């Protein structure tokens, strides 16, 4: 069953099968430390790159070899009239090449819905709490998706997709701007669909912490997908 999950899911979404990061092995510990620092700097730079165009970026995945670095990033732009600029993308690539000290290949994948990536969905919910209540935000998110209830149905089996979303859960810890403060009640949880524990299930979890005038709060999301076999 584990082979089914690896073949049908990981090869579509993760570079190099089920390996998130492939690092070059250095003979000296200093080399590994430098690569770790470079990766952290690159993640910060990528986040700053997407901010001016009001785009949300997923967690970058770095595939590092001795001669090059490949960076995979999912991103979502809420505004239809906003788009990435080729010049700024080239500038980002040059800056990352300078950080890693070797050529960098950027693979930026645009998502049309925020719920297709856990990190993007957590940011999307957190940023919208400045203007909307959690119920309004989740009504918009949950209203745009219908989790698959029967993964073995004829329509699902006929699909070319390797997996389908079967459930989404959101938990917010902290006080939100657009909601009345409730004593001793600072955690809200809502869920749509189901979560099953088997070898065909893949759960993408992520959290995002920020703050408002009432203090810090954290949004954590779980997106459950199930492989089609």
Automatic annotation (TrEMBL):
Asked whether the keyword Chloroplast is assigned, the reply is no
Mitochondrion is among the record's keywords = yes
Write the record's keywords in alphabetical order, separated by commas: Mitochondrion, Ribonucleoprotein, Ribosomal protein
Which GO biological-process labels does this protein carry? translation
Q: What is its main location?
A: mitochondrion
| Location(s), subcellular | Mitochondrion
**GO-annotated molecular function:** structural constituent of ribosome
Example of a GO cellular component annotation carried by this entry: ribosome
Q: Which family does it belong to?
A: Belongs to the universal ribosomal protein uS3 family.
Q: What is this protein called?
A: Small ribosomal subunit protein uS3m
State the organism of origin: Hannaella oryzae
Gene name, Swiss-Prot/TrEMBL: rps3
């Amino acid at each position: 069953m584990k082979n089914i999950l690896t073949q049908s899911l990981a090869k579509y979404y993760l570079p190099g099968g089920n390996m998130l990061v492939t690092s070059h092995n250095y003979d000296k510990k200093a080399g590994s430390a430098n690569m770790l620092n470079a990766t952290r700097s690159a993640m910060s730079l990528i986040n700053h790159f997407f901010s001016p165009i009001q785009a949300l970026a997923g967690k970058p995945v770095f595939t590092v070899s001795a001669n090059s670095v490949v960076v995979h990033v999912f991103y979502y732009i809420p505004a239809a009239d906003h788009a990435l600029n080729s010049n700024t993308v080239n500038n980002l690539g040059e800056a990352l090449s300078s950080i890693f000290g070797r050529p960098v290949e950027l693979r930026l994948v645009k998502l049309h819905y925020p719920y297709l990536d856990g990190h993007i969905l957590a940011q999307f919910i957190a940023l919208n709490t400045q203007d909307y209540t959690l119920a309004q935000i989740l009504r918009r998110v949950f209203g745009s998706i219908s989790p698959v209830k029967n993964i073995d149905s004829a329509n699902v089996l006929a699909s070319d997709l390797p997996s389908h979303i079967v459930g989404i859960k959101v938990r917010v810890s902290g006080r939100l701007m657009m909601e009345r403060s409730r004593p001793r009640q600072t955690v809200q949880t809502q869920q749509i669909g189901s979560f099953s524990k088997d070898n065909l299930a893949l759960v993408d979890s992520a959290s995002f912490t920020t703050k408002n005038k009432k203090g810090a709060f954290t949004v954590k999301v779980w997106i459950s997908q199930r492989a089609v076999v």
